[in-house]
Automatic annotation (TrEMBL):
<dbReference type="InterPro" id="IPR003593">
    <property type="entry name" value="AAA+_ATPase"/>
</dbReference>
<keyword id="KW-0067">ATP-binding</keyword>
<dbReference type="Pfam" id="PF00005">
    <property type="entry name" value="ABC_tran"/>
</dbReference>
<dbReference type="GO" id="GO:0016887">
    <property type="term" value="F:ATP hydrolysis activity"/>
</dbReference>
<dbReference type="InterPro" id="IPR017871">
    <property type="entry name" value="ABC_transporter-like_CS"/>
</dbReference>
<comment type="similarity">
    <text>Belongs to the ABC transporter superfamily.</text>
</comment>
<dbReference type="GO" id="GO:0005524">
    <property type="term" value="F:ATP binding"/>
</dbReference>
<dbReference type="InterPro" id="IPR025302">
    <property type="entry name" value="DrrA1/2-like_C"/>
</dbReference>
<dbReference type="Pfam" id="PF13732">
    <property type="entry name" value="DrrA1-3_C"/>
</dbReference>
<dbReference type="InterPro" id="IPR027417">
    <property type="entry name" value="P-loop_NTPase"/>
</dbReference>
<protein>
    <submittedName>
        <fullName>ABC transporter ATP-binding protein</fullName>
    </submittedName>
</protein>
<keyword id="KW-0547">Nucleotide-binding</keyword>
<feature type="domain" description="ABC transporter">
    <location>
        <begin position="4"/>
        <end position="229"/>
    </location>
</feature>
<dbReference type="InterPro" id="IPR003439">
    <property type="entry name" value="ABC_transporter-like_ATP-bd"/>
</dbReference>
<keyword id="KW-0813">Transport</keyword>
């Protein structure tokens, strides 16, 4: 069921078109990743969704809500959150709660609940300046949850973290996605693969590819044959390009070649015949599949 429909979203900074005609559908209870290389327009898109930047054109519509100003339904963690290091985690959340119109008592109760939820209740009285990167991000997520948002927007929530902090925050996100709808941006495919249900890949402000993980895998993965020779294969490769079933040929080392093919059975037979007839000794001949990583790199390089 759709929660947010984004249509034709566009943002221009003078002549620079940072986001161009994006259409996104965010479904209730679904964790969606906005994936793209640096400068793809992710932060600009999320800022417009969070209501802190005005689109040049396009529309953002929430389903089934009463108020036109949708900002009250959104919790937002910016890419570079700023904290008051001299405050304790609990003081900070109480402060944010009161800014969000909670009474002093309500803010204190909510702060306590959220500190428990994000797993830093033990550190609630410690100064934020002494928190680790992962703890700060978890506090940032807690502040984004202060108004019980329908949509939680997280801009690159794990990109700046070390492996431990990254794991802490991904685990928290996995728990939160059971409770709320999440949209998060990342330039790391693995993070998207790990916790999200739906992926939008953007490039130069435009939509490149979108789908569920399964859809992307099924639609874009191509069968590939990995061949490793006992000796260098270079001289035998130019002829391979002439086969109609070969769509791509990559030789990363002199003794190896990865051949992306359109028809596995024909390719297997013809390639074995080819090397067999030339008496080229083959050490490995394996059918592999291109990964989502290959797909993402291809989109990013295009
Ligand atoms: N305030 C601004 N004024 C002018 N250009 C901007 C502004 N903000 C972003 N841009 C430009 O818009 C484009 C998209 O930037 P954006 O920060 O949205 O990308 P991103 O995908 O979030 O990148 P990153 O992963 O590096 O954060 C870039 O070309 C950037 O230089």
């Amino acid at each position: 069921m759709s929660l947010v429909t984004i249509t034709g979203l566009t943002k221009k900074f003078n002549t620079n078109i940072a986001v161009h005609n994006l259409n996104l559908e965010l479904n209730k209870g679904v964790c969606t990743a906005l994936l793209g290389p640096n400068g793809a327009g992710k932060t600009t898109t999320l800022s417009m969704l969070a209501g802190i930047m005005k689109p040049t054109s396009g529309s953002i519509a929430f389903s089934g809500v009463a108020e036109r100003d949708f900002r009250k339904y959104i919790g937002y963690l910016p890419q570079y959150p700023v904290f008051y290091g001299w405050m304790s985690g609990k003081e900070y959340l109480q402060y944010v709660g009161q800014l969000a119109s909670l009474s002093k008592n309500e803010a204190a109760t909510k702060a306590g609940e959220l500190l428990e939820l994000v797993g830093i209740a033990d550190a609630k009285k410690r100064k934020i300046s002494g928190y680790s990167g992962g703890m700060k991000q978890r506090l940032g997520i807690a502040q984004a949850l202060i108004n019980d948002p329908l949509l939680l927007i997280l801009d690159e929530p794990v990109s700046a973290l070390d492996p431990i902090g990254r794991r802490e925050v991904l685990t928290l996100m996995r728990e939160l996605k059971e409770k709320t709808t999440i949209l998060f941006s990342t330039h790391v495919l693995h993070d998207a693969e790990e916790i999200c249900d739906y992926i939008y890949i953007v490039k130069n402000g435009e939509m490149a590819i979108n789908g569920t993980l399964d859809e992307l895998q099924n639609t874009h993965q191509q069968p590939t044959i990995y061949i490793e020779g006992e000796k260098e294969l270079d001289e035998w490769l130019p002829k391979l390009k002439q086969y109609s079933f070969v769509s791509e040929l990559v030789s990363n080392t002199p003794k190896t070649v990865t051949v992306t093919v359109t028809n596995v059975e024909t390719a297997r037979r013809e390639l074995l015949n080819y090397f067999g007839s030339l008496n080229v000794p083959i050490r490995k001949f394996e059918l592999v599949r291109t990964s989502l990583e290959d797909l993402f790199l291809k989109v990013a390089k295009k």
